[in-house]
Design brief:
Layout: E1 2-4, E2 12-16, E3 24-28, H1 39-49, E4 57-61, E5 66-70, H2 77-80, H3 86-110, H4 124-142, H5 149-167, E6 172-174, E7 183-186, E8 189-192, E9 199-201, H6 205-211, H7 220-234, H8 239-267, H9 277-290, H10 295-302
Antiparallel strand pairs: 1-2, 2-3, 3-5, 4-5, 6-9, 7-8
Length: 309
């Protein structure tokens, strides 16, 4: 039994290697589970129907809080990028982008109002909570910023512009955390993991998670090419408007990621995610520079985060 590196959640993972069969992965929850109502299991069944490649739930022990899953190995898309060729890198990203189109199209066909993801959404409340989390745990917690009442009011107003626009967009099924660490390279292709928080949101959400990923450097030319590929797969003709919406989503998503990194470092005493802060800030600064509408938000944040100046 070998412990595996986990994510930022409270779950722990172990690889079990029996002498008489293939290895499996055990996902250990903090307490007892009810597999019949567990979001991971319900969403895995939904994704398998689309079909999208996901790990099979092999067995469960509810009282012990354990799920037994397919072992997809240790190579995430993030890890593969350091070893694969440029052409392999491009092909895997195009596959990941095609998965988003399947998720959105088949999600619309298969979801019912009773399904868990249908009852969750990136609404104003959720999007605002994530931005407030950034203020609390990155600005104030990690960077020790002291915001004046006027700054808080001004930030809230800028955040409200972003959240109201995003929440007002037509909603599609979103993975919720679709990035290079949640895509496993196995058997020559990709498998999707960590999808238990799936919910409804803008059609840009998962693409932003993948292409403005805190864990991976993506060049401007790669970004343009991958967005163009998504537009072609989706049949979207207005590239300028889509890119504008993509950038608004990227601001919210990158601020949310910084909040998570700050929380892990300042509140949980886990500094491992701090290595991803510079890249996230670079993505954020570049997005700010593309649009004058973010001038005031950039001014407010750069007073406490010098990398955004």
């Amino acid at each position: 039994v070998v412990p595996l590196t986990g994510d930022a959640s409270t779950r722990r993972y172990f690889r079990v290697m029996p002498s008489d069969g293939p290895s499996i992965v055990l996902a250990l929850h903090e307490g007892a589970i009810d597999v019949a109502s567990l979001p991971f299991v319900a969403v895995s069944r939904l994704l398998a129907r689309m079909p999208l490649p996901v790990p099979t739930v092999l067995d469960h022990a509810d009282a012990l809080g354990i799920l037994a899953l397919d072992d997809l190995g240790d190579v995430t898309l993030q890890a593969h990028l350091g070893a694969g060729s440029v052409s392999e890198h491009d092909a895997l990203y195009r596959q990941a982008i095609a998965f988003i189109e399947v998720l959105q199209r088949r999600g619309a066909a298969l979801l019912t109002p009773a399904d868990g993801p249908s009852q969750l959404a990136f609404d104003v409340t959720k999007l605002t909570w994530e931005l407030d989390f950034f203020v609390t745990h990155f600005l104030e917690g990690y960077r020790a910023a002291r915001l004046s009442p006027a700054e808080r009011t001004a930030l809230a107003a800028e955040f409200a512009h972003v959240t109201s626009e995003l929440a007002g967009e037509p909603r599609v099924l979103c993975h919720r955390d679709y990035h290079s660490r949640n895509l496993m390279v196995h058997g020559g292709g990709l498998y999707v993991i960590d999808f238990q928080d799936a919910r409804m949101g803008p059609d840009t959400y998962d693409l932003v998670s993948l292409l403005r990923d805190s864990y991976v450097d993506i060049t401007y030319s790669e970004l343009d090419g991958f967005i163009a590929y998504f537009l072609a797969v989706k049949g979207i003709s207005d590239a300028v408007e889509f890119r504008r919406r993509f950038d608004v989503m990227a601001v919210q998503r990158n601020l949310k990621a910084l909040g998570t990194f700050g929380f892990q470092a300042a509140a949980k005493g886990n500094p491992v995610y701090l290595q991803y802060v510079p890249r996230t800030l670079t993505y954020l600064r570049d997005t700010f520079a593309r649009h004058t509408r973010f001038s005031r938000l950039r001014e407010l944040l750069s007073a406490h985060v010098t990398e955004l100046r």
